[in-house]
Each structure stands twice: as structure tokens, then as C-alpha cells.
């Protein structure tokens, strides 16, 4: 029992603490309508963080997710796609995410370059291409299907929340039920040992970056629908937030750990904490400070628990 409790991600205990605190200070925060609003806000970040989980568990990192989201937003909002079926435009946006993930994966595996440097460079290139593509003036010709994905509801449940659940199930299957997940954790824990054991370490890392790019583009589609217009800076804060959600979910930068369930719990905790801070009137600098402290404390406690 002790081992099981210590294995639970920090986000699990954090969510319990936040819910108890909210129940005594802001009871309306836990009402069903408000929770559905939080779910709609958390869905895009949750999908992006799930993609980040693959690369973090594989001892890598993807700092280009923010630029990917922004570029996807420019695609789905640009007037040049007027007249095309909305599903085709969404497919183009997802393919762009795959291409970005492929470029990141090839640079990291073939050139053996640092993932931090590679993905930062990729983000800069994507941002520049986005400015050229949009001419510095993002469009507002967004299809109703995209808006429905970001804002729509089925009953009281947001469509984006259902999409996030579907991506969470997919990520859980890939990480826990398929050989790819075992390869990711083995390569992330000890790349040399995994290579000697016959695991295709480079191919596994390449696939991790491909999945990260695809999930980032998918989250970008939902976030674009939620916002409803084009924006050159959309998703800029998702880089730090996605990494924070993964760390809160129990992953470590050394690789070999992490889970889809933990990442979704980490996303929920992060969104609830930030919204609670908003309710109490905390401004953006204060939110960043609290967010950093929560990540640091959670990582330290989880590491100590694993060592114990």
C-alpha cells in the first residue's frame, strides 16, 4: 500500500488539496457548469501535454509545440482555404504537425543534436514562416466545424473535452498496451541498454517526436476553435504549461517515467490552480511564480518518494 501511494503522481494529491481548498473558499468553483468551463479550457492543453509526454518519457523535449499551435491557427483561419471542405483544412493542419514532428525527430536522431536546441530552432523557423504566410495579418475566416470543436457542446459536456478524453485513451493505449510504449520507457530509462537489447532507439525517438507534433497540431485546432480568430501569438504559453503538466503527472526529465493518466491529472491541476488564482485576483507574474513553485515542489516530492 505504501509503495502504491508513493507511486501516485503529485497531481493526484494536488487535485485533492485544491478541491478541498476550493470547497471551503469558493464552493461555486466545484459546480458542474464551472467544471465544464474548466474542462473546455483544459482540453487543448491536455492534448498538447499528452504529446509532450511521449518525448519526455523518451529522454527528450519538444519546445516547438507553441509555434506549431500558432501555425495551425494561421492555417485554419486563413482566407486562402475558403471553399475547401473544413475536414480537409483540419487534415492539412494535422499534416503540418506531423511534418514538424518529423523534422524535429530527424534532427535529433540523425544529427544527434540537443533536443532543446533543435526544437527551439524549429520553433523560430516555424514562427518566421508563419509571419511570411500570413503577411503579419492573421485571418478570421475560420470554419464553423473548427469553432464547434473548440466551443461546441453535446448536452453539458464540451466537444473539446470529449476529444481530449479520446486522445487520452489513445495515449494510454500507446504507452501501456503496445510495444511502442515499452520501447519508449526502456529507451528513456537507459538508451545504451535498450540499444544492446535490440530496441530501435532512434526509431522510437523519431516516433515520439512525430506523436508530439501530431498532438500539438490537434490541440492547436481545438484552441483555434475556442478563440475563433487567427493570432500570431496563440499557444506561446503552452510550451511551459505542457511541460509543467507532464512533470506534475509524474514524469522526470531523465526519461523512463510518465503516463497518460498522470499527464491529464497534471493538466487538470494546473488549470484549476491558475483559475483559482484568477478568482483571487492574482495577476500574471504571480501566476508564473506559483506555477514554478508548484512544479518544483511536486518534482522534489515525487523524486524523494521514488528513491524511498
UniProtKB/TrEMBL annotation:
Entry-linked InterPro entries: ABC_transp_permease (IPR001851)
Keywords in alphabetical order: Cell membrane, Membrane, Transmembrane, Transmembrane helix
Natural source organism: Mesorhizobium marinum
CDD domains: TM_PBP1_transp_AraH_like (cd06579)
PANTHER family named in the record: ABC TRANSPORTER PERMEASE PROTEIN YPHD-RELATED-RELATED (PTHR32196)
Membrane-spanning intervals of the chain: 32-51, 63-81, 87-108, 115-134, 154-175, 210-232, 238-257, 264-282, 288-305
Name of the protein in question: ABC transporter permease
Protein localization: Cell membrane
Chief site of localization: membrane
Amino acid at each position: 500500500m505504501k509503495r502504491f501511494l508513493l507511486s501516485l503522481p503529485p497531481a493526484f494529491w494536488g487535485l485533492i488539496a485544491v478541491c478541498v481548498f476550493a470547497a471551503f473558499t469558493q464552493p461555486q468553483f466545484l459546480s458542474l457548469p464551472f467544471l465544464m468551463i474548466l474542462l473546455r479550457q483544459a482540453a487543448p492543453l491536455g492534448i498538447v501535454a499528452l504529446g509532450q509526454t511521449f518525448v519526455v518519457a523518451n529522454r527528450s523535449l519538444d519546445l516547438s509545440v507553441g509555434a506549431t499551435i500558432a501555425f495551425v491557427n494561421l492555417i485554419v483561419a486563413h482566407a486562402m482555404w475558403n471553399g475547401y471542405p473544413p475536414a480537409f483544412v483540419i487534415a492539412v493542419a494535422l499534416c503540418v504537425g506531423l511534418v514538424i514532428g518529423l523534422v524535429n525527430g530527424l534532427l535529433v536522431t540523425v544529427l544527434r543534436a540537443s533536443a532543446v536546441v533543435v526544437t527551439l530552432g524549429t520553433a523560430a523557423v516555424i514562427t518566421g514562416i508563419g509571419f511570411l504566410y500570413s503577411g503579419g495579418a492573421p485571418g478570421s475566416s475560420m470554419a464553423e466545424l473548427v469553432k464547434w470543436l473548440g466551443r461546441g457542446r453535446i448536452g453539458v459536456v464540451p466537444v473539446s473535452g470529449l476529444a481530449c478524453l479520446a486522445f487520452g485513451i489513445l495515449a494510454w493505449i500507446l504507452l501501456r498496451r503496445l510495444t511502442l510504449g515499452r520501447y519508449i520507457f526502456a529507451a528513456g530509462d537507459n538508451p545504451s541498454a535498450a540499444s544492446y537489447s535490440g530496441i530501435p532507439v532512434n526509431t522510437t525517438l523519431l516516433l515520439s517526436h512525430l506523436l508530439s507534433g501530431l498532438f500539438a497540431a490537434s490541440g492547436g485546432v481545438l484552441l483555434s476553435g475556442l478563440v475563433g480568430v487567427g493570432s500570431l501569438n496563440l499557444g506561446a504559453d503552452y510550451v511551459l504549461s505542457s511541460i509543467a503538466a507532464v512533470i506534475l503527472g509524474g514524469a522526470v526529465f531523465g526519461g523512463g517515467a510518465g503516463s497518460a493518466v498522470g499527464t491529464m491529472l497534471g493538466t487538470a491541476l494546473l488549470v484549476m490552480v491558475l483559475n483559482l488564482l484568477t478568482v483571487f485576483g492574482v495577476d500574471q507574474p504571480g501566476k508564473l511564480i506559483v506555477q514554478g513553485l508548484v512544479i518544483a515542489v511536486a518534482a522534489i516530492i515525487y523524486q524523494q518518494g521514488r528513491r524511498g
